[in-house]
Design brief:
Shape: elongated
Number of domains: 2
Structural class: alpha/beta
Helix content: 40-55%
Number of strands: 7
Radius of gyration: 25 Å
Order of helices and strands: HEEHEHEEHHHHHEHEHH
Distance between the termini: 17 Å
Number of helices: 11
Length: 326
């Protein structure tokens, strides 16, 4: 947990950045999930809302609908949206990223393909990916076509007496006999689900940030990458989106200072104003979003006095999105 000096320095950096950009600073770290996405709406405060928004985002993905609703809310409430990526932003999180007018990706930032079949976050290297069904079907189809062409070429080269029609029939029979049992194991419902998710993603992207994509970028994001884990860094993202840039020196300092706040367990899967998060960080037992003083004390009693809320804290599910990116 950052000490008072770190919090003071972060407040100063955040105040300067907010005044310069005339923007509210929001943070979100965790899974994009429903029905709890009601917690991803910034409550109205008595203080005036600034016209622009700076969102520090860290997520492994989750619900497409939750990501869409959050993106719509931010676009509705703010004229200009800047999204900072200093860690993971995978799956449905990519919807939020491509919505941004400015997408600021640090050297540690990592986007991923639009993998929207799964409604839960996929841990890199250890999870099922919705795109696996589409890729499996594509691989089987390519193998079937290759087998047919190979058998056909073999029959034509070895038997001059065989007509083209006979060669085609024989090649087809062999290819079907080889690949038929494999295709029989394909669940059409899984394929339909993947196709439906692709259509849904296309429509959501068109409504959120289709004009931010370069030509051919949507198809690449949907089907052009082999896995959910594929690293889309700043250079790769620049080939896909018109809005990508590197952080300025001031923004780099800000992202370095805010990282311990964003990764605290108590703020997980909640959209918060930075000033609210700082107030909670300064007073651990008071004003925690949705956590009473008694709950806070019980958690510390369970975890032990040496447990922190930052990176490395023990959780029921290991979540690399909350590890330090460095």
């Amino acid at each position: 947990m950052p000490d008072d000096g770190d919090l003071h320095e972060l407040r100063a950096l955040a105040t300067t950045l907010a005044q310069l950009r005339q923007a509210d600073i929001l943070i979100f770290s965790g899974d994009l999930a429903r029905p709890s996405d009601g917690s991803m709406s910034v409550e109205r405060r008595e203080q005036p809302q600034l016209p622009n928004c700076l969102l520090v985002l860290c997520t492994l993905g989750g619900s497409t609908e939750a990501a869409f609703r959050l993106a719509r809310t931010l676009r509705r409430d703010y004229r200009h949206l800047t999204v900072y990526i200093d860690d993971y932003c995978k799956g449905a999180g990519m919807l939020l990223a491509l919505t941004a007018d400015d997408l600021v990706i640090s050297d540690f930032g990592e986007l991923g393909p639009l993998d929207l079949v799964s409604q839960r976050a996929v841990i890199p290297g250890r999870g099922d990916s919705g795109r696996a069904h589409v890729q499996a079907l594509r691989a089987l189809r390519a193998e079937a076509e290759s087998s047919f062409e190979e058998y056909l070429a073999r029959f034509r080269s070895r038997s001059l007496a065989m007509t083209s029609r006979s060669a085609i029939e024989q090649a087809s029979a062999l290819a079907i006999g080889l690949m038929g049992p494999v295709f029989a194991q394909v669940d059409p419902l899984h394929v339909a689900e993947a196709d439906r998710a692709k259509t849904t993603a296309t429509l959501y992207v068109q409504r959120l940030g289709g004009n931010h994509l370069k030509e051919g970028a949507l198809e690449r994001l949907l089907t052009g990458y082999p896995s959910h884990d594929f690293v889309v860094d700043r250079e790769e993202a620049s080939d896909l989106l018109r809005t990508v840039r590197a952080p300025t020196p001031d923004e780099s300092d800000f992202l370095t200072q805010i990282e311990p706040i964003v990764t605290q367990r108590r703020f997980r899967s909640r959209l918060l104003r930075l000033d609210e998060a700082l107030a909670v960080a300064a007073s651990p037992e008071r004003n925690q979003p949705g956590v009473s003083q008694e709950s806070a004390r019980a958690e510390r009693a369970t975890n032990g006095p040496g447990t922190t809320d930052g990176p490395g804290a023990t959780t029921e599910t290991e979540d690399p999105a909350h590890e330090s990116p460095g």
